[in-house]
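Table S2 (continued). Query chain:
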Amino acid sequence: MKNRKDHHDFIAEIVSIASNGASKTRIMNSLRISLDYWGAKRYLELALEKGLIHLESNKYKTTSKGFEFRGVYREMEQLEDHLNLIFK
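Corresponding output:
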C-alpha cells in the first residue's frame, strides 16, 4: 500500500462518504484529517465538477458515475496490493 494519499484517494473517500447521502460538514470533517479546509473544499468541488457526486436536498450523493469510479478505484487498489506482494 502507498504511504501518501493522492487525489484519487481523496476523491474515492468523498464518493464513499456520499454513497448514502452526506452533509458537506461530514465530508469536510472526514477529509480534514489529511487536508486543510481549502484542500478538502477543492476535492469536494472537483468531485462535483466531474459528476461523481451531486447535491440533493442539502446532501451530497454519489452518482452512477461515482459508483463506477469507486469500483475501478477498488480494483486499482487490489492490483497495487498484488504488485506490492510480488516486489516485496
